[in-house]
Amino acid sequence: MTRSSTRRSTGAPGGGAGERPYDPAPGRRYPHLWGYDDTRFEFLDPRTVHLTGDRYPLAGAPLPHFMPFVEALLGVPAGPEHLQQTPPPPVLPEPVRAPAFLDELRAAHPGARIEDDDESRLIHSHGQLSVEEIYRLLGGGIPDRLVDLVVHPASEEEVLTLVRLADRHGVVLIPYGGGTNVSGALACPPRERRTIVSVDMRGMSRILEIDRANGLVVVEAGITGKELEVRLEQEGLTSGQVPDSLELSTVGGWIATNASGMKKNRYGNVEDAVLDAVLVTPRGEVRARPVVPRSSTGVQPQRLAFGSEGGLGIITRAVLQVWPLPETQRYASFVFPDFEAGVRYLRAVQAAGIRPASIRLTNNTEFRLGQALGRARRGTSALVAKLKKAYVTRVKGFDPERMVACTVVMEGSAAEVRQQARGLFGLLAAHGGLSGGPENGRRGYAVTFAIAYIRDFLNKLGILGETFETSAPWSRIHDITDAVEAELRRLCAERGVPGKPYLSYRVSQSYRTGVCIYFTMGFCGRGLADAERTFHEIEHRMREVVLEQGGSLSHHHGVGKIRQDFVPRVHSQAAIDATRAVKRSLDPNDVFGAGNHAFGPVAATASPDAGRVPDGTP
Amino acid sequence: MTRSSTRRSTGAPGGGAGERPYDPAPGRRYPHLWGYDDTRFEFLDPRTVHLTGDRYPLAGAPLPHFMPFVEALLGVPAGPEHLQQTPPPPVLPEPVRAPAFLDELRAAHPGARIEDDDESRLIHSHGQLSVEEIYRLLGGGIPDRLVDLVVHPASEEEVLTLVRLADRHGVVLIPYGGGTNVSGALACPPRERRTIVSVDMRGMSRILEIDRANGLVVVEAGITGKELEVRLEQEGLTSGQVPDSLELSTVGGWIATNASGMKKNRYGNVEDAVLDAVLVTPRGEVRARPVVPRSSTGVQPQRLAFGSEGGLGIITRAVLQVWPLPETQRYASFVFPDFEAGVRYLRAVQAAGIRPASIRLTNNTEFRLGQALGRARRGTSALVAKLKKAYVTRVKGFDPERMVACTVVMEGSAAEVRQQARGLFGLLAAHGGLSGGPENGRRGYAVTFAIAYIRDFLNKLGILGETFETSAPWSRIHDITDAVEAELRRLCAERGVPGKPYLSYRVSQSYRTGVCIYFTMGFCGRGLADAERTFHEIEHRMREVVLEQGGSLSHHHGVGKIRQDFVPRVHSQAAIDATRAVKRSLDPNDVFGAGNHAFGPVAATASPDAGRVPDGTP
């Protein structure tokens, strides 16, 4: 799938005669959306929605405030009458076949699990980009190029065979983890004429060893975060890695994306948590031994797997840190009169060396979204809630249109958690904050896992949205958020977007030297001549604004294809050349041809300042 | 300088007619040793030494216990009569001249500081390897190959010119920081026929910006740790980076070596502390912008500078984290009945999440070395010391030949330090530990900075010694130390080493998943046919034993040339190939031809298991 719908090429390789529809299993949910079959947002009546199933705290109860909130914020109506139907099965182009490759694979691994049905092919040809992938599919579109085969290796030996055969037969391999990528990294290059095989790693999900003496676990890289945590929990352990995609994404995917979990303050980002990863490339395995906490052994090729985005090889196993389950877990929430006050509080917390497992700060819009996802209130609880609100808004003078919320998870020994809580509450008053209670903290984190289901629901209502994130120095936060907001409003007005755009953001991670800002933007695409294209252009400009204001290209989503244009702005030409030299060394035939980040069609000339001596500003 | 004295080639390029002696400035200390001119160990009488100058807490007072300790431990006499004289100025070979290169350099930078005198050439042709470099020099030897010129660039522009001209004129550049390298990384490849220029970076020591808002400092990479700290302290700040070489080593050297400071628990290792480094290569600058706390932008070429050991380019600037000076600093020391008990204590401290800035554990020999560096005691203080010792050894039953010491530095807010101290003292009794008081803790750290002066002094007495370090999982600690100790004894007996070998070690860093073990080994080389070669072979075998027992090749000293043989054991062939591909991309003409780690003469074939699917053990 390409970055722009205008490039949907009907003449792409793999098309042609014999195209046929596919038929998803009857009764099954449309298999391209996020998450679990039993979980989706549905209208109960024209104004009330609920989340089906019982997986999430949010599920089950009517949510009467949500649709009014959406309509008010977007300035457009959004009712059952706007729901688009799930599209009929699309006509897929015939695959590009590789019989010799397949014969040899089957000869070497008679039990090899190989799929070439349309549903498998389509599922494995996209990630979870909201607009360029999911919205397009819901509108009946398909990616410009599809994978031709899906293979599910069951062992490292099978991966080695796959890589060797692909190299010999001129086949492309695209590693596939949980399918949750949001940078277009799973999309096939539209002009690829070779057979493309998606290598679905989820069959390799064993825990190979738990090493309690050294706090390590050795896993096959296809294990999902949820499987990992369920099985570690049985042993009284946790990896502490909690990306928002935890339920679906895999350890290999985390490494390939250089991912980040919400509890990184305690458990580290993926580069801290993973001591070792085996990367199988066409020219052999990249790894370093022994596995030790830290070393100094020259340039560190073993770190090449991190952020490789499928372009160098297949990550087959990893050694991760594990921790005993925390003795104590405690949630908290705080409200502040405005976002600026909240940011000052976060800085003070960092400066004081207080490191709760997670601390996040939502802007006012995201705060109100959280409120709008509240259930219908009955009896005393509603009364209490009203009283509390009255206290906050009337007595303390908080403006409901400006106030923001901070949510916290503390984990560790009772003493650690006590000390953290003392520190966090102690700094509150000086920054104009008030406690919002533990339950609101817990709820804030629970909502995180529902966001992608909301995205799918809004997509069906013709409302396009996407998240994007950046890391930035503390001093750039407000410049970035202000510039993004102003530019989004300007562009939506200029392009004739109906109603108003939606923009919310949170500080999702803090570091001593800055933060991760996580944005959600959206608008109603109804009536636009080419909504997908309009969205793409506006979103591209948003990322540009972030860069102009001193933010990074990405904190943890990666580059993939949608951010590829910006690679020369963030990496110098010599750096890009070195990256490509690594690629040529490990994968000279471009077996791993997904074409993400510097491995894809990046502008050959670097940014204007690439040759300059850098100035003194960081 | 090569790894073995047997390879000292008289036919090395750069030799030939016109060789002439050099004449160090009269009255000046022999300029090849460690540290400051005013600081050295000297005999006061045949049994008593002192440290001259007043830089160190250890300096000034007679140290009556040290030489008896040395003699007892090594089983050889060591008095003034064994002192070797500083050698006469050696005869240096003529330099390999590069007149066109020099002419163009002078034309572009008329003020360029260029040296070609013998003393500068010799100083810049070695680091601080105890035996292969310092002991050899003290014995009148010189490196197999010397640098031909020394240039001291004053600006990034001058570095860019140097690199461009070197690439054009076929000149080799070897970046030089504090000259404290202990892996042979500064040694010139003996067969290099091109002109070799040492690029002494210490003229580039400016602080370019202090960014308090984001806790960052931008520095030129030639600044030494001490300069950096002195100037930051004036601003109420610290980088917290305290490698043992702090006084002399540079920020650029730290990055190139992937160094580690003793307070990494609070301030991080160099890879944590440095957010950005500019690496100037013959094919342009490698860097990523903007400078942010963390990002996900594909493979990370900007990390190539870390551990590059001078082989890819010159690190010209860095952005480091800075911290406010700690509100509170507190030392502590503990004694344990034996090393095993001390290790159990360190693990318990880690498991409890207590992270003092530094916590170290010495083995019994190193504990006794610390005692032996005590001053002559008078009056009550001696009495108190005796009483304390009697309590520890008689009442508590500690064996002076087995007991060990743990030293701690806590830094941070008063609350943080209080919490850490409570945790540390709270775990003591359960592990059989006793407090040794803050003063012993402070002393333990102060001794660190005197170790290299002791090395120089013992070298002159014909006693060869070296430090080496490894990182290892917790579960491998005792296997590694036991195997190293047994093999050292066996080899020294086999080789007819006089007396007994010395071996001390400490756990200098701890991590959740393991530790850094820092060894010091030594023996008397008097009477051996080729002491340097014997030492080299024994030390090489020590490193091999560490690898066999699951330790890493290096925790923070790097690979350089003395560990180069082992590169194929710790990096897979594909990883080595990728590293070399980077090198060819950035430096196709091998301008940065120091030839360290994978960039040097590493065995072309990888280790026997490099092609295998790895087993489940980490």
Structure description:
- Two copies of one chain form a homodimer.
- With 618 residues, chain A is α+β, with helices and mostly antiparallel strands.
- In chain A, the strands form six sheets. Chain A has a seven-stranded antiparallel sheet, with helices on both faces. A five-stranded antiparallel sheet of chain A has the order 9-10-14-12-13.
- In chain A, helix 4 (130-138) packs across helix 15.
- The two termini of chain A are 36 Å apart.
- Chain A is globular.
- The interface between A and B is large, with 116 and 116 residues.
Quick structural summary:
2 copies of one chain form a homodimer. Chain A is α+β, with helices and mostly antiparallel strands and 618 residues long.
Which terms would index this structure?
homodimer; 618 residues; alpha+beta; 7-stranded antiparallel beta sheet; 5-stranded antiparallel beta sheet; 19% strand; globular; disordered C terminus
